[in-house]
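User: Sequence recovery, please. Input:
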């Protein structure tokens, strides 16, 4: 009970620190919000009984501290030390780099898949969604356009190619998150409302995927092939994977369609090519996973049967949401 109350306290501080960061009227206040966020997230992910969890929390602390120091140093340079020198481009690039490192964006992504691999599914959900809000909003306040476009291309390419040879479902979702981060950065460059729309849909999709893997206790790809799952669960996986990849008429296609439409209007044809080709690579390896899980049929083990019976209502709810979102998005495109 005491452990749960501690977790609830740090969870409340985590949400509160994000609000401090995005509502502050000074860069120093934003930095304080980011630091409180870091110090409240580490107790949530660390577990003294699990050495991998302790190692993960230490890695997370070191990378986030490095980004925070760089961010604070750039704030001091910008507003106090070098007011007379024209260094706006360098300062904006360094501040953007710090925030991108906090989000786990390419090419500062090397810590992200390793940390995702050492966390539970629920902590991964928080890392892939809530922990991206503060840096993303701060990035929209002060950014270098050319630098961010280069970073977007890096995210798209590394996020799509990095997931090709993965056997871990957590690492697969980590590289998918890096790819989607490229789309989110571009959406926030267009409009904050578009970013919010993309972020909410991405959070909904990733929550359905993670809840399904959590309920079925799945961590590796071979578990999708070994477990002879119910047809509706397989259908749920199919819809969620394809929606996460951005295939029409699924829900994940809607925000991507708006971004592609904006690029077409402004004649950014090279960016359209990069966005579409990387999405095709992601859809390719999602279909490869789903095809294999549909084709393989093994006998269920007893513990799988027991687990399925206990969590069937939640799994059915997730399936219903996935199928209804597909039907709804189809009517929108019509």
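Assistant: Recovered sequence (334 residues):
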């Amino acid at each position: 009970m005491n452990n749960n109350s501690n977790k609830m306290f740090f969870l409340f501080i985590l949400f509160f620190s994000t609000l401090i960061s995005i509502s502050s009227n000074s860069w120093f206040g934003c930095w304080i919000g980011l630091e409180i966020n870091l110090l409240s997230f580490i107790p949530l992910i660390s577990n003294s009984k699990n050495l991998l969890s302790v190692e993960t929390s230490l890695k997370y602390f070191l990378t986030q501290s490095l980004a925070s120091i760089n961010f604070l140093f750039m704030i001091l340079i910008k507003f106090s030390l070098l007011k007379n020198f024209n260094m706006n481009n360098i300062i904006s690039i360094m501040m953007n780099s710090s925030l991108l490192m906090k989000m786990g964006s390419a090419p500062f992504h090397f810590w992200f898949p390793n940390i995702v691999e050492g966390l539970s599914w629920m902590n991964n959900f928080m890392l892939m969604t809530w922990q991206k809000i503060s840096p993303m909003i701060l990035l929209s306040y002060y950014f270098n356009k050319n630098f961010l476009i280069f970073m977007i291309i890096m995210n798209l390419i590394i996020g799509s190619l990095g997931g090709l040879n993965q056997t871990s479902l957590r690492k697969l979702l980590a590289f998918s998150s890096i790819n989607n981060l490229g789309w989110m950065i571009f959406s926030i460059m267009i409009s904050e409302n578009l970013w919010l729309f993309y972020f909410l849909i991405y959070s909904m999709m990733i929550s359905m995927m993670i809840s399904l893997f959590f309920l079925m206790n799945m961590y590796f790809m071979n578990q999708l092939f070994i477990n002879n799952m119910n047809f509706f669960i397989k259908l749920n996986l199919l819809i969620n994977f394809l929606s996460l990849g951005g295939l029409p008429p699924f829900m994940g296609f809607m925000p991507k369609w708006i971004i592609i439409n904006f690029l077409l209007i402004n004649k950014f044809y090279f960016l359209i090519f990069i966005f579409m080709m990387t999405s095709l690579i992601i859809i390719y390896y999602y279909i490869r996973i789903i095809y294999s899980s549909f084709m393989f049929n093994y006998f269920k083990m007893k513990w799988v049967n027991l687990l399925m019976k206990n969590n069937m209502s939640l799994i059915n709810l997730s399936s219903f949401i996935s199928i209804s979102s597909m039907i709804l998005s189809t009517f929108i495109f019509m």
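Residues 5-333 form one domain.
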